Amino acid sequence: MTTPDGVTAAPRAPQQGAEPGPQPGEESAESTRRRVLELVASDGPVTAADLAARLGLTSAGIRRHLAQLEEDGTITVHAAPGVAPVRRGRPARAYVVTSGGQAELHDAYAELAVEALRHLRAAGGQAAVAAFAAQRYEDLIAHVGPRLTASDPAKRAAQLADALSGEGYAASLRPVAAATLVPIAQLCQGHCPVQHVAEEFPELCEAEARAFSELLGTHVQRLATIAGGAHACVTNLPLGTAQNATLGAAQHAPVEGTR
After folding, report:
1. Domain of 179: which CATH number?
2. Which of 90, 81, 71, 88 is nearest to 45 (CA)?
3. Together in a domain, 95 and 119
4. Which of 99, 174, 211, 250 falls between 20 and 30 A from 72, CA-CA?
């Protein structure tokens, strides 16, 4: 580098402890942490080893990102039994997204949507809000429905999870080991684009569950929602035929409006 007086100065050494900037073709640390956060949202509870394998990062690299996300308050350790041990006597730390992390992934126009629905409720009552929620998920059915081409219930449920992920819900399908007449899977949504709106207007969660039921042609059971404080929206999906699903409905009564 040449100074104004024509003297060539030596390049400055990077500050000690500073992260090097991304090289051409590399991701920045910020964008990598965003990818980590999105994966924790979609796959959580998830361990550092799993995240490192998914992202092609070293153990030290992934732990540095996880530590920063923990410090930022966007993820936290999920204490749950059944997590495989990393070494003798020490269980793996499995991570989930916090409400603050959900906010990081959330649409910036949430407050405007809340104000609009409050105005709708004031003008037309709860019935107007319910009608709005129903229309929103009628649109989801029309948009997602054509992508669900499988007749096999398990494959159709997997197609629904893929379609929802494409819509920003960070969805995944997980099998459930349960002694029931009909095999069951859980649809887990690690991100809710309308989280803060649904916190005040649970009609959105109720209408979404009805949309899933219509898309799959079977009864579904909503177990938890992000709007209600869970780290993911979780819905039980029977994977039998429509006739078998009807038989299993007595064992899995719907829980609509779970928040």
Report:
1. 3.30.1380
2. 81
3. no
4. 174
Task: Please tell me the pTM assigned to this model.
Answer: 0.57
- Asked if pLDDT for residue 247 goes beyond 70, the answer is no
Axis-axis angle for helices 203-216, 110-144 (nearest 10): 10
Q: Which domain holds residue 157?
A: 110-249
Q: Where are the alpha helices (DSSP H) in the chain?
A: 29-43, 48-55, 59-72, 99-104, 110-144, 153-166, 195-200, 203-216, 242-249
Tens of pLDDT, residue by residue over 135-146, are 999 998 999 999
Greater confidence, 130 or 109? 130
3-state helix, strand, coil in the chain (%, to 5): 45, 15, 40
Beta partners for 20?
A: none
Closest CA to 256 of 208, 185, 216: 208
Tell me whether strands 184-189 and 233-238 are parallel, antiparallel or unpaired: antiparallel
User: Is 183 in contact with 239 (CB distance < 8 Å)?
Assistant: yes
Contact indicator for 196, 228 with CB cutoff of 8 Å: no
Nearest to 259 by CA among 172, 213, 201, 220: 201
Of the residues 66, 81, 103, which one is the last residue of a structural domain?
103
154, with CB counted inside 10 A (0-12, 13-18, 19+), is middle
